[in-house]
Write a structure and sequence with these properties.
Length: 137
């Protein structure tokens, strides 16, 4: 199935494995919150056990080789009026959502120590934002 939109996560490649997984989970939740229409129907197995619904389209995960690549992707997104979800290195030091928001608010956009971004937009727009990035290995 071909979707009109594309969901992309961009995660800095030099993070520890647990950090990458944490960032991916938080960023995917940002997409789900911003785009409730991307959530599919709940699941049920053959024994009639119910499960939560998931995002109903593929999520492509790209590797950012360095902070500059993330900053470039953020600039590209904002210049195309795409509002991303973000995760900064300072957020690893906090323990709850309010503290996360305060950590981001304390830093100007050009000084954010980005470790991840997530976005959902038209396919061609996302392709231009992630141009030059490779899929995460």
């Amino acid at each position: 199935m071909q979707f009109d939109t594309k969901i992309a996560l961009i995660i800095r490649n030099d993070l520890e494995a647990w950090q990458k997984l944490n960032v991916a989970a938080f960023l995917a939740s940002g997409i789900a919150a911003a785009f409730p229409d991307c959530i599919g129907a709940p699941y049920e197995d053959g024994s009639s056990t119910p499960y939560h619904a998931l995002i109903g389209q593929p999520i492509l995960i790209y590797a950012a080789p360095d902070p500059a690549a993330l900053a470039r992707a953020l600039d590209r997104a904002l210049s195309r009026s795409v509002k991303p979800a973000l995760y900064t290195e300072d957020m690893f030091k906090t323990t709850h959502d309010e503290a996360n928001r305060a950590a981001v608010k304390a830093v100007a956009r050009t000084d954010l120590n980005l470790v991840g971004l997530a976005l959902r937009a038209e396919r061609k727009v996302v392709d231009k934002i992630v141009d030059g990035l490779k899929f995460h290995a």
